[in-house]
Design a protein that fits this description.
The complex is a heterodimer of chains A (255) and B (276). With 255 residues, chain A is an alpha/beta fold. Chain A is built from 9 helices and 9 strands. A 6-stranded mixed sheet of chain A has the order 5-6-7-3-8-9, with helices on both faces. Chain A has a 3-stranded antiparallel sheet with strand order 2-1-4. In chain A, strand 8 and strand 9 form a beta hairpin. By secondary structure, chain B is mostly helical. Chain B has one domain: ABC transporter involved in vitamin B12 uptake, BtuC (Orthogonal Bundle), CATH 1.10.3470. Chain B is 80% helix and 0% strand. The termini of chain B are far apart. The chains are: A alpha/beta (255), B mainly alpha (276). The interface between A and B is medium-sized, with 30 and 27 residues.
Chain lengths: 255, 276
């Protein structure tokens, strides 16, 4: 199987009159670990939803694992950014993670031993096995993030898509998530959307910058020119305190 | 007091109420957890249009109610995932159109006008054996549907987007859930009427949710509470008539008891959350 994990060619998308993506081309090899960064409203979440088949491009083609996105359903793990569900919903952690095992062709079947095993392994991977019986309404933000990652891992995906997985976490827990993603990227393709430029510079293999148009880079090295082209505002980045760790950082730098 | 249970009519009425509690508790839990109570309100009021059509064309009004309820559920359900912003307007429209059609159909029906209050506020005491059998049949359909597709229905109730991502037929499942909701509403129409159905569907489930941590016990609790309120309402109605000659229909009493249980439960939850 040498088909790229993701292949976008000349993809355009707009919400009504508001253009979001223009002429986006992207090819992601299998087992790559790609970060997509860019400003709010730059189209990052839209890009993920196109890959998931939740949205459809106005023009261009989207192929995921060599198939149209709908055909790859179930093989693509998804960790959404915002918690879309009601925290009062009466459900336990293990029930949520088990949702990763659901498929159209398993609808009338009970979950079996292999499903239970996948759920247990997913819980263990993100180190929340002791929380399995907890109602989700009692979890902290960091724990909930891990539940959502575990749910995606229970899918046993070939491609894992994560939307701002560290946005609501403090730095210490966030670092744990980045370490986890690095580990996962050894066995699957990982695409992560993030604002966390510092973490991206330390962990991922390739970077793409997205602000309506996509600038892909074969390495994780970010130059001021690339960031300026994406954000149009490098000063804003400096104000966040990241540039010294990002700009000009090379392999073997301090972690 | 206890000999009321020996009366055949009371046994029939009680059985109808208890059977209705099953559909009510199971479906009500989904309605509360998925927060589609206004949607369900639209369905129950639209169902009244079917009552009118039944009178006009001379078939069983409850059958008409089920038909209209399911059609309203499909209309709102198809719009639900497409027109997020205008949804509340659409629900209000379906709600009002159903009621308007019902009243119009009844007015156009030949002969003298039937008493509509029994559909608007329930007429549990007059429930015939035929409807007791219908309620039991609805229970079977609801339990079979929810039993077969529980994990999928739970998934679409909890996080539709993720259900879509793993490849579940989200829209079909949702329309199925709304069809079951329509059936539950029609059953409740007989107990407490169109106007109070949504209250009995949601209050016991909302109360049960405060004390349970997953859907199956929430459903069991909602069913038990709904049954308790039905029994309480019937006994209260009987006692008022027997002791003080006040004729109070059981439907509103059932709903008031359910509301009281919710209020008491919420109070206890607040006490529990604030340790002394």
């Amino acid at each position: 199987m040498s088909a790229p994990a993701i292949e976008l060619s000349d993809v355009w998308f707009a919400y009504g009159d508001l253009p979001v993506l223009e002429a986006v081309n992207l090819s992601v090899e299998s087992r790559d670990y790609l970060a997509v960064l860019g400003p709010n409203g730059g189209g990052k979440t839209t890009l993920l939803k196109l890959l998931l088949g939740l949205l459809h491009p106005a023009r261009g083609s989207v192929r995921v694992l060599g198939l149209p996105p709908e055909g790859a359903r179930g093989r693509v793990g998804y960790v959404p950014q915002r918690v879309q569900f009601d925290p009062d919903f009466p459900i336990r952690v293990a029930d949520v993670v088990r949702m990763g095992r659901l498929r159209r062709d398993r609808m009338l079947r009970r979950l079996g031993a292999s499903d239970r095993e996948a759920v247990e392994r997913a819980l263990a991977t993100v180190e929340i096995a002791p929380l399995a019986g907890r109602p989700i309404g009692t979890l902290s933000g960091g724990q909930l993030q891990r539940v959502l990652i575990a749910r995606a891992l229970a899918q046993q995906p070939e491609l894992l898509l994560l939307d701002e997985p560290t946005a609501s976490l403090d730095e210490r827990i966030g670092t744990g998530v980045w370490d986890l993603l690095e580990e996962l990227s050894k066995s699957m393709t990982v695409v992560v959307i993030s604002h966390d430029i510092g973490a991206i510079s330390r962990h991922v293999r390739t970077v793409a910058c997205l602000n309506r148009r996509l600038h892909a880079h074969p390495s994780r090295e970010l130059t001021p020119e690339i960031l300026e082209a994406t954000y149009g505002c490098p000063i804003d980045l400096i104000a966040h305190g990241h540039p010294h760790r990002v700009l000009g950082q090379h392999e073997g730098g301090p972690r | 007091m206890i000999d009321v249970f020996a009366l055949p009519f009371f046994q029939r009425v009680l059985l109808a109420g208890l059977l209705a509690s099953v559909a009510c508790g199971v479906i009500g839990s989904f309605v509360v957890a998925k927060r589609i109570s206004s949607l369900s309100g639209g369905i129950s009021h639209a169902a009244f249009g079917g009552v009118g059509l039944g009178y006009l064309l001379g078939f069983d009004p409850m059958l008409g109610a089920a038909l209209f309820g399911i059609v309203a559920g499909v209309v709102i359900g198809l719009a639900y995932r497409r027109v997020r912003s205008g949804l509340d307007m659409l629900i209000s429209m379906v709600w009002a159109v159903g009621m308007a059609l019902g009243i119009l159909f009844v007015a156009l029906a030949p002969g003298y006008a039937p008493d509509l209050t029994s559909y608007l506020f329930g007429s549990l005491l007059l429930v015939p054996w035929k409807y007791v059998a219908w309620i039991a049949a609805v229970d079977v359909v609801v339990l079979a549907g929810v039993g077969l597709f529980f994990k999928e229905l739970q998934a679409i109730a909890f996080d539709e987007e993720f259900a879509e991502v793993v490849g579940l037929p989200v829209e079909v499942l949702f329309l199925g859930l709304l069809a079951l909701t329509s059936l539950a509403v029609v059953v409740l129409m007989r107990v407490v009427g169109v106007i109070l159905a949504i209250a009995l569907l949601t209050l016991p489930a909302a109360t049960s949710r405060q004390w349970t941590r997953s859907l199956p016990p929430m459903m069991a609790g909602a069913t038990a509470l709904s049954a308790a309120c039905t029994l309480g309402g019937l006994l209260l109605s009987y006692t008022l008539a027997d002791r003080v000659s006040v004729s109070a229909p059981p439907g509103p009493l059932v709903v008031l008891l359910a509301a009281l249980a919710f209020a008491v439960s919420s109070g206890l939850q607040r006490l529990r959350a604030r340790p002394a």
